[in-house]
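Morning, I've got a small favour to ask if you have a moment. I owe you a coffee for this, so here goes:
>
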Amino acid sequence: MRYFIYISYLGKGYSGWQIQKNGCAVQQVIEEALGKLLSRTIAISGSSRTDKGVHATQQVAHFDSITPIDPLHLIYRLNRILPSDISITAIRPVVEGAHARFDACHRRYAYTIITQKDPFYRDRAVWLHHTPPLALLNQIAGLFSVQADFEFFSKTTDATKSFICNIKEATWVAMDNKLVFYIQANRFLRGMVRTIVGTILKVATGKMDSTTVAQLIRQKPSTRPILTLMPPHGLTLVEVGYPETLFIKENVS
């Protein structure tokens, strides 16, 4: 039986989601906990490879179990042994062959900026003393609500085969002393969200022209400017969406 496991974590103490040679990854910690409770080696595959220091309120991964499990009981037992900065929020049975990464319809991220110093957001947001007007931020963000090649807005790797992403939402929201940028797309490239946020702020503060942004999105820049990669601790993976047909309805007695 295959299951989707829903995970929330603070990324500060980890080298990222994916297991690496050096550093402790979130994936590694969860695999070890599952292996301990299910008494065998468990491999999980995540929906998104968040970078070092990036958080998640909803990361999704899949794993296989030889025998059926009781999701509520396993959630409780996992949360008892996992560190305080990782939490399991749900475990759902799925159809055979369902894949947490390849079957995802969309992913949604939030980038949080605080406009005054706040110790409770020290590791979860970036403090900017002066911020541009909300209307201006959203006007610039609208340039990114397209399906396009975002190679110039990513940290390219040899493993990247396509840079095409379909962005359905790119919106700034003001709440209390925070500015939160929400962005949703079918997929994201490495460093893409943090670079887009940095670019929007650069244009809004007059350090870059919006025409240059349009040229970068169309892959026709006259010269390639130096783009800003925002700090990782302001970024959170907040949602991963799937077709309901993937999920097996559990019997309710």
Q: What stands out?
A: Residues 33 and 96 are 23 Å apart (CA to CA). The chain is about 20% helix and 30% strand.
